[in-house]
Amino acid sequence: MTVTGPVEIALVAFFSVSGLSLAGLTLYLRTYPTGIRGVRSFTALLALTAAWSFGAAAKIVSPTPVERLLVALELPLGVLFVLVFFVFASQYTGRDWHRRPVFVAYVVVVLLGLGLGILTNPLHHLFWEDIELSTAVFPHLVHRGLGPLYFLYVLLSYGLYCLAVYALLGIHLRSRYSTESVLLVAFGSALPLFVNVVSLLDSAPIPGLDYTPIGLALFGIATTWSIQLDFFDIVPLARDTAVEQSSEGMVILDAERRIRDFNPTAAAFLPSLADHRNDPLDRVVENADEWFEDADGGRIEFAPQTDEDRYLSVQTSAITDGPHHLGWTVVLSDITDQERRQRHLRLVSRVLRHNMANRINTIMGHAEVLDEFVDERGRTHLDAIDESASSIMETSAKLRTIQRIVTSERSRARTDVSATVAAVVARYSDQFPAATVTASCPDEVFVRSTVGLQAALENLVANGIEHDPDPHPSVTVTVAVDGDEVTVTVADEGPGIPDTERRILEEGETPLQHSSGVGLWLVYCFVEQSGRDLTFELGPEGGSEVSFTLVRAPAELEG
């Protein structure tokens, strides 16, 4: 068909520019990670709208047979637009309606029925009577006598569209935070349908012409604006769940650690948040990098610079969609009362340890003086006093070490396991000449560890020596490296760990029985803070084997 009139030229130009713009936006969206929820279906939606716009331009310039085909495809394109938009809304909002069998069945029935119905329309005319030439304004083909199946598919599509918009508006209504981008997409998608209604009612200046591509152009403008407003930066499901429903302070950061959302509790903890929306976190928190050193599980304590004496526990977790990192969730818990209790307990502990050490030293000093004034029977009692006092001092020292371990959770340092094992072996070989204490380990193995590694090894080696009835006990310390894991095993040939003390390792029971029980508890606390997989087994020839696993220090830390 020859294009000669100004109206035809203007429409071809408008539809072509609209198609090019939508195609460009489609290509731009392809740069987004495909794992972001809803981005693939939204890209398909834009590609479909671009094709529709190009088709509208092609109808005006194409020969009659091609134009007739393009006019017949107007209804299928509209149905596909709504189906893809519904899938997008379902994915983006996390409702996953599109995965339900009823929707899959609906799609199959609708598309098969539509395809077969249009192909056989010349036989039943239930979609339209005919496609005929209209000379209004300029010559073009239009539908004549729209039938009941045509309007049925239109109504089904409008109903599905309303359900999709309901899902998108639900995000806006549930959230107190910025959702302008969601509103733009929801209402922008209504423009093609509104213009489609105008076309169906023949209320436009050119009767029978499909004006839907004009609405598609406006939809493209709204979409471009929404993407600039962070439409795909944070998954709305994560935002709703994390920000709106949390009873703790919650801050949502994007992948660049910019503050995107926070709830009222977080604003109460950190009042300056309100002045720094969309700014980097370090504008609000000094040393913010510390919050991400042990993300996805680790906790740190933080005292915000406010007028209140407040302490917070900070836990940072990544927001991901498949393999793609979208941002961070920061959970802030008020631990002020807990910190105050610990402060009081530390004070009481220091006082008790100081007084205990002084009193025990006094007892041992007087016992040593009395040794010159008693006979053999009295000396037996003095030896018992000395042994008990020494045991109390040893237990007190272990308790001090345990306290250091449990209060140094965040203070993990690069530690050479091999050097630590060598020092322990040398000490106990000198202290117990009749014992055989050996080690099997590489020359250097560095791990990330809190304090307490040497104390844990010393307790396990000492237990192996002291509890072995053999006058020549044997203890072996083995260090094995497997990738990023370092497994330490202490094996002896003694009677094994008593059942009462095994429960310390198995269940974490607090040992109250004696010093060796406290020693095993020390090992338990160290592994709980620095490693994992604390186990004990019987050796192949009796005795016990206690093992635990530590995390190897990164290679760059070993240079």
Write structural notes for this entry.
InterPro entries: 2C_sensor_his_kinase, HATPase_C_sf, HATPase_dom, His_kinase_dom, HisKA_7TM, PAS, PAS-like_dom_sf. It catalyses: ATP + protein L-histidine = ADP + protein N-phospho-L-histidine. By secondary structure, the protein is α+β, with helices and mostly antiparallel strands. It folds into four domains: 6-228; 237-334, Beta-Lactamase (2-Layer Sandwich); 336-407; 409-559, Heat Shock Protein 90 (2-Layer Sandwich), CATH 3.30.565.10. The protein is built from 18 helices and 14 strands. It has a five-stranded antiparallel sheet with strand order 4-3-7-6-5. Strands 9-11-12-14-13 form a five-stranded mixed sheet. α2 (39-61) packs antiparallel against α10 (212-228), α7 packs antiparallel against α8 (180-188) and α13 runs antiparallel to α14.
Give the N-terminus to C-terminus distance in angstroms. 76 Å
Strands in their spatial order, largest beta sheet: 4-3-7-6-5
- Uncertain runs with pLDDT below 50, 5 residues or more? 511-516
- Tally of alpha and pi helices: 18
Largest pleated sheet: 5 strands, antiparallel
Q: Report the radius of gyration as a whole number of Å.
A: 38 Å
- Determine the fraction of residues in helical runs and give it as a percent range: 40-55%
**What's the domain count?**
4
Structural class: alpha+beta
Give me the oligomer status: single chain
The shape, in one word, is elongated
On the 0 to 100 scale, the average pLDDT is 76
Q: How many strands? A: 14
What share of the residues does DSSP label as strand, in percent?
15-25%
